[in-house]
């Protein structure tokens, strides 16, 4: 039986509370019992591990600070077991670092002290709505392809759907970042609640705050009635911030507070109101690069980039191009009312050689144009009208970004090798600052070898 179908009044769902403060433990226990849930409460990690080994639970709610360790250890313990038990943590007020650490370790969600009972209820309802791990995803087939990069993304989406952690989706324009965000939403606990996509670059700076948080009547000229913002519209669901790098710095501060406190204040209001929103963000720009350049707040970057999902460019998934193109063409045929259309074999081969700087979005535009121009059911090479400058033979030279990354990685590794992995000396050899070298190593995935391997 799915969690969403369980009847709380029948006590078929059980929650394990782990907190060493009797007052808080009793408060949480009473709150959950009134929700019709079965509850066990313990005061230490050791007791919690014992209960988890003996019985079946649908949720574990643990404090971060316990007599025999941190709740983070319990999160990791459950993550390492073959248990389908989401773990939520209670963090100290303002302890953003602990919350982020818990989410990175695999926690489902967190709630801050002083504990707000409505927040707890919302968290519990969300956790108990998670689909079972073996339950087919609602839109599992929307991500087409069997290549290794697509398979990796599909697996990552399955994991991300089972947590409420903020997700940052990186990738080139047209690579399917919004589709990935929708799949995370549709395969998670919030699938029956709103998914609100927002193009951050399309909102004028003067309207950003009122669009995100809403406003009260009379807050400014033209505000003739109260209006909700994106956060209120997405309450209970997911807010997808596309091109988040385009947000002005002043708004970045307010967004950070809204994410941390899970509360927003409408323009013209003196009161904050709670919101239960999962944040997924995306941009085709490198957020880490913008942080380094001072154009994006570092603290907001760390809150958005709790978990990163990288969408591969279409040129790295060439074996999927035929299937993706066929699916897009079938959809376009239905939309336009055409009787039929198909790609000629030579057109398929030509698409496989193409570089696709605009990725899947460009492929869709190419096929839409070809369908409009083709006089027959067979779409040939001439109908595609591909840009000859973007054609790339499979296995040929890398794209420019890939080539530049390869050159940079080689230069850094050579400098590190000459200096015995002394980063200060390597930075001096390369003519850059230590901070710049550290950033480049992080971006390129260059890690310092373990002491044993270095000495070997």
What does this structure look like?
The radius of gyration is 25 Å and the shape is globular. The protein has helices at 22-34, 45-54, 71-79, 96-105, 117-128, 148-160, 177-186, 208-213, 230-233, 249-261, 287-292, 298-304, 321-336, 345-353, 359-373, 381-384, 400-418, 423-430, 434-444, 451-455; strands spanning 14-18, 38-42, 59-63, 65-66, 69-70, 87-91, 109-112, 167-170, 195-199, 238-242, 263-265, 272-274, 278-283, 307-310, 342-343, 378-379. The termini are far apart. A five-stranded parallel sheet has the order 2-1-3-6-7, with helices on both faces. Mean pLDDT is 86; it is low at 1-10 and 452-456. It has four domains: 3-128, Rossmann fold, CATH 3.40.50.2300; 140-310, P-loop containing nucleotide triphosphate hydrolases (Rossmann fold, 3-Layer(aba) Sandwich), CATH 3.40.50.300; 314-390, Orthogonal Bundle (Helicase, Ruva Protein, domain 3); 400-455, Arc Repressor Mutant, subunit A. The protein is of the alpha/beta class and 456 residues long. Helix 1 (22-34) links the parallel strand 1 (14-18) and strand 2.
Helix-strand layout with pairing:
Layout: E1 14-18, H1 22-34, E2 38-42, H2 45-54, E3 59-63, E4 65-66, E5 69-70, H3 71-79, E6 87-91, H4 96-105, E7 109-112, H5 117-128, H6 148-160, E8 167-170, H7 177-186, E9 195-199, H8 208-213, H9 230-233, E10 238-242, H10 249-261, E11 263-265, E12 272-274, E13 278-283, H11 287-292, H12 298-304, E14 307-310, H13 321-336, E15 342-343, H14 345-353, H15 359-373, E16 378-379, H16 381-384, H17 400-418, H18 423-430, H19 434-444, H20 451-455
Parallel strand pairs: 1-2, 1-3, 3-6, 6-7, 8-13, 8-14, 9-10, 10-13, 15-16
Antiparallel strand pairs: 4-5, 11-12
